[in-house]
Q: What sequence folds into this?
């Protein structure tokens, strides 16, 4: 009820923005245009996947499945869910996010012709930075590696979606370490049917999300109480390396490093921050030696943002609208997670992701399209939804209702199309 009330307030804010803002700087949905519901044969796939996941999760036998089956079964289900939502996009399905005006493929073609990973890697400091308009080089390097293998058609879209969906099993692994296996099992259906899956298909931000999930899983593993010696040291360095690689895909990824800092202090492993920090600097140093300066790229990205977006979209309205998007994307699990934050040992992940979101809003970066940049943070904002209601208590019941609401939200958002009537 709290979530629904907040959503209604958010919709009212959106209506007021359209009615009274001088210029929102966009003519796109959901603010302008007319709408129609597009029903196609592929429209049946997402509801079928959602019903299958909810039915399976609610069976008593599901609680007795081995943990490995839960983890990889969740991955398969999440991949099916994400692909089924991606197929509803009439603008180009599994290829549009990469081939549009702001997509990566035109920039890759401009950066390296013929497309060659080695050429792209060794030239990242020159033509890649220039071609990417301030994007870090990770996405272009990944495409330079994948395109020769799978081409630029649907195969590339499926490959990127499969990589992005690895976020689900990796978050579950980190959740098991943070809040325990029972709570992590109950979190699985929420994570699989998350509304933010509408932005995961063919998304470089989805790849960033998977990299950060691997970072958090590795960092949680390294900081466990009984982990000592070389295994703890090695995985701490590996977590730092993954964090550094993540920053090569998104400048905002660096903020999730705070979650590991908090986690290490909470688990009384402060020196792990030293090893993780050293690991995180290594990819930046390699990039620097090859000609790409991370700080210079960040300044270029901000300059591009300032010239194209900042001056055209009023901060006050877009700060509120961006938070509304966050609320809808996370679903009812966001409220449940916030209410239980004090009762879960997974609080470092919640606080780290929340700080990243707050910084984006306060700094004025949240002016539309931010849902993609926030994609790596969404899972950690809802991690505590299945935490015990009180410290040391049993995990919350299976959140089938919240998962169902999230699934319906995703289907509706993806099915309502802007119509040129």
A:
């Amino acid at each position: 009820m709290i979530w629904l009330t907040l959503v209604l307030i958010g919709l009212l804010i959106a209506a007021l923005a359209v009615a009274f803002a001088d210029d929102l700087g966009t003519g796109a949905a959901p603010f302008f245009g007319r709408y129609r519901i597009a029903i196609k044969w592929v429209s049946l796939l997402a509801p079928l996947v959602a019903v299958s996941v909810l039915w399976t999760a609610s069976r008593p036998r599901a609680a007795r499945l081995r943990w490995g089956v839960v983890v990889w079964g969740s991955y398969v289900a999440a991949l099916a869910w994400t692909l089924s939502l991606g197929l509803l996009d009439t603008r180009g399905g599994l290829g549009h996010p990469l081939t549009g005006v702001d997509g990566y493929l035109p920039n890759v073609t401009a950066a390296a012709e013929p497309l060659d990973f080695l050429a792209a890697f060794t030239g990242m400091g020159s033509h890649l930075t220039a071609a990417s308009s301030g994007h870090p080089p990770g996405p272009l390097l990944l495409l330079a590696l994948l395109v020769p293998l799978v081409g630029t058609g649907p195969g590339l879209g499926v490959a990127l979606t499969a990589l992005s969906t690895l976020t689900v099993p990796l978050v579950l692994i980190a959740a098991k370490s943070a809040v325990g296996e029972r709570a992590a099992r109950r979190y699985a259906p929420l994570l699989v049917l998350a509304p933010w899956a509408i932005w995961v298909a063919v998304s470089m931000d989805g790849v960033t999300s998977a990299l950060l999930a691997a970072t958090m899983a590795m960092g949680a593993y390294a900081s466990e109480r009984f982990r000592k010696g070389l295994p703890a040291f090695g995985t701490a360095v590996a977590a730092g390396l993954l964090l550094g690689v993540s920053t090569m895909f998104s400048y905002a990824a660096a903020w999730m490093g705070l979650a590991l800092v908090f986690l290490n202090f909470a688990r009384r492993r402060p020196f792990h921050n030293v090893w993780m920090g050293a690991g995180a600097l290594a990819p930046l140093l390699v990039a620097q030696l090859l000609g790409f300066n991370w700080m210079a790229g960040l300044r270029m990205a901000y300059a591009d943002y300032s010239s194209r977006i900042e001056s055209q979209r009023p901060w006050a309205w877009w700060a509120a609208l961006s938070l509304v998007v966050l609320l809808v994307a996370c679903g009812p699990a966001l409220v449940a997670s916030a209410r239980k934050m004090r009762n879960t040992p997974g609080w470092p992940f919640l606080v780290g992701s929340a700080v990243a979101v707050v910084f984006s809003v306060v700094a004025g970066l949240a002016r539309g399209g931010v849902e993609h940049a926030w994609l790596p943070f969404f899972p950690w904002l809802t991690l505590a939804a299945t935490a015990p209601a009180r410290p040391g208590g049993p995990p919350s019941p299976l959140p089938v209702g919240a998962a169902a609401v999230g699934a319906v939200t995703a289907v509706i958002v993806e099915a309502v199309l802007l119509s040129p009537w």
